[in-house]
Each structure stands twice: as C-alpha cells, then as structure tokens.
Amino acid sequence: MLFVALYLHFQNNILIFVMGYARLAVVFYLLPALGERILSNLIIKNVVVSLVIMGLWPYLEPETMSEQGWLVIMVKESVVGLILAMTLSVPFWIATVVGEILDNQRAATISDSIDPVNGTQSSILSGFFSFAFSAIFFANNGMYLLMEALSQSYVVFPRGDDLIGFNWQEAGRLLDILMQTSILLAAPVLIVLMISEVMLGIFARYCPQLNPFSLSLAVKSCVAFIIFLFYGFQALSDKSLKMFSLSSFQHFFF
Length: 254
Hints:
The protein has helices spanning 2-30, 42-55, 70-105, 124-139, 142-156, 170-206, 213-242, 247-251; strands spanning 113-114, 121-122. With 254 residues, it is mostly helical. It has a two-stranded antiparallel sheet with strand order 1-2. The relative contact order is 0.13. It is a multi-pass membrane protein.
C-alpha cells in the first residue's frame, strides 16, 4: 500500500510539473535574454526551468487542475506562456529595433551579421544594442524581475481559468508600443543624421570634385555614435526596464 500511495503521489506531482512546464518553458525559450545563444544546452535550460517550477510550486494550485482535462489545461498554459513571453520580450525587441533604425539611416545595413543573443541575422548596431540591453537587464536584478513576473502571472491568470473574454486586440497595442518607443528613442539621432545629410548635400554642391558618398557612412556613423552616447544607454535602461512588467499581460485578460 505504501508503494501504491507513493506512486499515486508521484503521478499527481509529475502532472503538476508538466502543467507548470507548459507555461514557464515557453518564456525561457522565447525570451531573448535567455535565448539559444545564451543557454544553448537544452539540458542546462531544462534544469533551470525545473528549478524555477520547484520555486513556484505554491502557485500551481493542484486542486483546480482535476476539474478539466489535462490536455485542455496544457494548451491553455502554453497560450498563456506565449503571451507572457511576448509581453516580457518587448523591451528587448525595442533595443533591437532601435539599432535597426539607426543602421538603416546611416546606410550600414549592408554589413548585417548574426545577432549573438537572438541567433538571427541583424545589423551591427541592432546586435550590439540587443547584447548590451541583455547585460543591462541582468545587471539590474533582471532574474529577480523575471521570477517576480512569473509568480505574479499565476495571480493574474491562475491555472485552469477560462480564456473567455480574452482581449486579442492587445497584441496590436503591443506592436504600437514597440514601434512608438523605438522611434522615440532613435529620434534624436535621426534628427541629427538628417541635418548631417543636408550638410553633406550642401558640401557636395560647393565642392563637386569630392564624392560625398565616400564620406557619408563615416560621417553619419561618427555622428550617430556620439549623439547616442549622450542619452542612449541611459534611456534604454530606464524606459525599457520599466516596461518589463505584467501591465500589458494583464490587459489581455481584463
């Protein structure tokens, strides 16, 4: 009888573990700061996810899980994990988009390379900003913020809740926030780059023997780097880190 009781206890707990894995693993696999280039070994990543599940065990509420089918709950948890990963990834995407915008304006997208964080092809500044913001994130207690967000997600949307009344339009608002914040952070550099292009055009008008296109990349690169150093990393760390919260996640359900 003891072995039967232990087996039933193990069976119940392993199902709870799988349900917790369905939500949390999606976040760990999709969050740029914990992407395949950061935690490349699947064994290590799954061990980390398992430790997080053990830490969040009181939030899993096993008594609500028997009311529905396990497959239905797993699908719900996967959808919630996808939404949570998307909302928490917005600050990292902002840093990437800012780099893409600046490289596009300084005509440097021809030198695209592999982003060391996301593992995808991106411009030089985009990959640099993505890597830099990941470092800023971890230096500002990023893992503590992530654990707090994961635990609070079970308060906002407990396991087994229905997706009735789900606000799908919030995804469009997230995209709007992403583009609006990215353009806002890149705007000072864009304005100065536009002025530098006008000055290069005037220079070419009065000095036709010198090709302005040979100078444009070097001039605009120096201007972009100098201007961004005055405000860029401070603005990225302040504005983007404040967006690493569950406010947008809550709007999907309320």
